[in-house]
Each structure stands twice: as structure tokens, then as C-alpha cells.
Amino acid sequence: MGEVKAIKGADWKLEIGGLTELMGEKEGPALLFDRIQDYPPGFRILTNVFRTQKRAALSLRLDPNLSGIDLLNGWRMKLRTFKPVPVSVVEGGPLFENSMSDGEIDLERFPAPIWHEMDGGRYLGTGCCVITRDPESGRVNVGTYRCMIQGKNKVSVKVNKGKGGRIAMEKYHQAGQPCPVAISLGQEPSLFLASMSPLSPEINEYEYAGWLQGAPFPVVPGPLTGLPLPATAEIVLEGEIPPLESKDLPKEGPFGEWYGYFADTTVGEVPLMVVKKVYYRNDPIILGVPPLKPPNHYVSVPLGAAALWDQLEQAGIPDVKGVWGFVYSAQTGPFTVIAIRQRYAGHSKQALLVASGARAGAYGGKFMVVVDDDVDITNPYDVIWAMSTRCNVREGVDLVKGVWTSPAEPAIPPASRSPRGYTMDRVLIDACRPYQWLDEFPQVNVFPKEYKRDLEKKWKL
């Protein structure tokens, strides 16, 4: 108990964002904001839902006592049991308790915060689910992309190159047609976790959410677009993204991103949704998941590391003992650490090369580090110790150029930024003891864990 704290009367201008950051730093309870300044009671925002490992474990339907690499591995093992659960198509639902159409629509009727001090506007969508359908295959995609209010009935949807929603949108636009789209602004945790996960394109996020929650996910056909809407959602926007020219697209950003910097101020790049219908429950709750400076991550464990761990094993890398990230979003991010038990010369380099190109490790990556399995990869001090003492810089550091990355990457030079996409180099760091003279490498100056546990028991420490 005590996992949610109610806060009444906070200002949507910075206070909600500041309180979210402050409580996230303390790994405190989730925050439920009500009676927000300028808004009537019942228009609410919920933040920090997944900030602690206990709440993350509960959301993943895992043992809440798991933590660190055990929690990540527990999630990885659960993923191996994945079987898609078909959706349950229903008629109506609490989502349709209220609605707005056409001239009635005013997106600022909902308390979209200014989350960070230098944000370029009000971001209604941070913990959102953006729903599209591929016009060729008919495959539905649900993804999470930041959404900034651009007018009473307009919102920019920052769906980046290579993402499933972007690919579907571009197919419509290439045919000269608008892309039907719906955005859920508050929904079951299972659907948000599916939406922000780097799933294979053939996996349907609704069916993944149904598997995660142990029951078919209820959807209702959108009255305007026919897209499957989450029937139990809090708020859904329904409309289209027209094929506009760059000169007709507004400024988007800046926005505080998961790297820990304000990033991505663009003009003429980010798609613009025209909202034609709005549906919302009585007393709706917006899910707020603003990116914050690491280690204040909105999900307290790097779930993308589980996917990279599996991809390494699927590529034939033996004895991978763990994968972790320290600056991450849905992927492991720009500092990824892999632990292996070395079995042959070149084993560590092979792991690095595969990780740098695997889908779960490529997007947003920069530094890839491999260490021996005696290193606690969830402890940055232990990782830095291994890098400092075991890496032969002359032989153990390599560079791979031009790998897919996130537009939020702050170190991309201004002259290299392009709406056609972004790349960044990878630094591969072998911080394992050299396999060729492994037996001769100095022994670690530390007592065995078992001996220290015996001392604690004997001396009641």
C-alpha cells in the first residue's frame, strides 16, 4: 500500500512536471494530480507509475520482490512464454461517456502540462498510444510518440523515421491520402508497456497487451476511422494526418528528452494530426510519462535490455549472463553493458559487434561495453572499475560508424541533422580480462561473497 499519493491544486505550468521529477528522484509513490489549476475537479493526471522496481514488476505481472538483473531476467523468461491473445471486439464502453466533435473540440480542455522548464509547448501525449493501420497489409500498430498541442484541434505527432507508425503514414501519403490515426491518452498499463516496447513488426501490440494482462484486450472500432480503440481508455483522439508539405508543418519542440537534454526543435518535419473526434470517460486520467534526466527513468528497469539479451543469444553468442543500460528509453540506450562468461578467443568482440547491430541495441546506442560475469553490470562503479583495469585500450576499443540512432541524440552536429534520418557511431569497449592470458591475469582483491555472508551471520552485522 502507499504506492499512490494524491496531490490537489498543482499548476500545469511546471509544477506537475517538477513534482514528478522530484518524486521520481526519490523513487517515491506514483502521483495522482486533481483539481489542477485552471481545471475543474476530475480532470486528472497520473505520473511515476513505473518508477520503482516494485511497481514495474507488478505491471509486468512478476514477483514484486525481484530487482536488478533478477527482475530483468524474470521479464526475459516471461517473454519466452509469449503467445498472442486475440482482442475482444466490444460495442461501446466507458470511453464514450463523453465526446466532442468538429467545432466543439478544444484540446486545452484537458490539463496538458508544460513538463519541463524549456519545453516549447504543452505536451498532451507522453504516456500515450498512437494507433495506425498499414494500408497494404492491414496490420495495426500501436506506438508511443510525444504529442504537442498545436491548436484547438491539432496536435503534432513526433513519429520518427523507421517506426511502425511512420512507415504506415508514409504509405498513405505516397498515395496522396491522409493517414487515419487515433491517440489514447490514458489506458491499461499493459497496452502502454506494449506500445513503448521494441516489438517485432509481426507482433500486434493489442495481442501482446492481452497476453501480459492475462485476458483479451477489449477494443471498439473507432466511429470515424474504424481503427481499434481501447474500449477502457480514459481519453482518445480520432482523426487523420494529412500529407502536408514541409512549409505547412509547424514548429515542434524543444522538449526534455530521455537523454537528459532538451532536444529536437524542428520546423516543417513533425507530422500534424487534425483531430475530428474526442472521446473521454467521466473523471478521465491522463497517463503522464515525461522523460527525465537519467537515472530518473520513467521505467525503473531497462526492459529493452531483455530483448537485446535474447537477440545476442539468437545470434549464437554463448554464455551471455546479463545485459543492462544506464541511459535508456525503450531500447538499452547510449551506454549498454553486456556480461559474458568467456569461452574462446574473440568471444567478447563478437558479442560487441552483434550488439551494435541488433535492432534492440542499435537505435540510440553509442557505447557498448562487454565485461566478465564477475562484474555487477547494474552497478556503474563496478562497470567503470572493470573498464579502467581490464581494457587494453590499444586492442580493446573499436569504432563502428554510421549506425541508426535517435533524433534526440544531443551530440549530432547541427549540420548533420536531416529529416531523412540520423546516424551515430558506436564505440565498442572490451573490458573483459584478455582470454589469451586469462589464467595469468591478477586476482581480484576482494573476499568471497559466501565468506562475507558467514561473517555477517557470525557477528550479527
Helical fraction equals: 10-25%
Helix segment tally = 12
Tell me the total number of β-strands: 25
- Supply the CATH architecture of the largest domain: Roll
Task: Determine the CATH superfamily of the largest domain.
Answer: Electron Transport, Fmn-binding Protein, Chain A
Please tell me the total number of domains.
2
Strand percentage lies at: 25-35%
- CATH topology-level fold name of the largest domain: Pnp Oxidase, Chain A
Radius of gyration, CA atoms, in whole angstroms:
23 Å
Major sheet attributes: 9 strands, antiparallel
- Oligomeric status of the shown chains? single chain
Return the structural class: alpha+beta
Q: Please tell me the overall pLDDT.
A: 95
CATH first level of the largest domain = Mainly Beta
How would you describe the shape? globular
Euclidean distance between termini CA atoms: 29 Å
